[in-house]
Design brief:
By secondary structure, the protein is an alpha/beta fold. Helix content is about 30%, strand content about 15%. Helix 8 (about 200-210) links the parallel strand 8 and strand 9.
Amino acid sequence: MPGILLVRTGRDDDVWEDVLWRMGELPGMYRSDQGDASEAVARESISRRLIVAEDPAWRGATSEDVSAALERPGIWVPDLVVLTDDRTGRNADWRPLLAFRSSGDDAFWITPRQVAMTYLVLHRPNLSFTIDRFADKAPIELQWEREEGEEPDEDDFYEPVGVELESLNAPPRYTRPARELPPLIQENDLLVRTDFTDDAAWASLVERVCLPCPGYDDVIDDFGDYVDFVDDPAFAGATPALVMAEVRDSDTQEEEEEMVSGVVMIADATTMREPGHRVLVIPLEDQIGFAFRVDPEVVGTMVANLAIGNQDIGDWRNDEA
């Protein structure tokens, strides 16, 4: 079962509660004082677990201590281990966490929100490549060599993955929905409606997405074949984090070698109200946690090019900028 282990090693209650608040009320989350972990997972539509280890016995523990504990027979082995340390307490802006995979790969720094967004899509295939990029981007080795006996300061460390998320005016945070949401089965790319105030705007958006992208008229007649439109009032008002948490692959997708991109698209209140009906795009495999908007006329060509690897998320985020 995919999952993450979060270990509290510090003694400061305020720091720890700040870390947990930034991560949000994640599905399948189990804190050590909440009973059976399997029950928390059973309540969710997608199997994954976040084990939060808060036992005082872990105070002052190192990554080596946690790694050794995970090598014991019969222990559940998570995909990713994250723990607080002195740096988490020193940096109140980012609350960086030390992260490593149980396979023994290099450790890296990551922010709580980036951990949370990664956890929401941890069940998806190929996510290991994303974690590889995390390790390359934010290794724990210092940027500069230090003189013998000289203590490093915060400026000497690499920035953790997710700093941009923590710095947003409205940073992402998962909050449990008031009601259970249905899973979103990704047989094709998905455009999920979350605003139900204007049916005419929705109909116009669907029509514009299905039209051929400029320059493709002689090649593709209907990009609607690439996109499934989800018009379910259960998702009314759902945040991007709630939507991305419910996306899972079709059971037949791998067997039939269907090609889908690593994003989910949302028609939110902004999409419906602005004249251009720009669609919100949420990455699920690369640059997880970020969002950007595209014109409905280019949705089809975007998902097609992402699916075949002809382009990546950066191409579309940079275009928006």
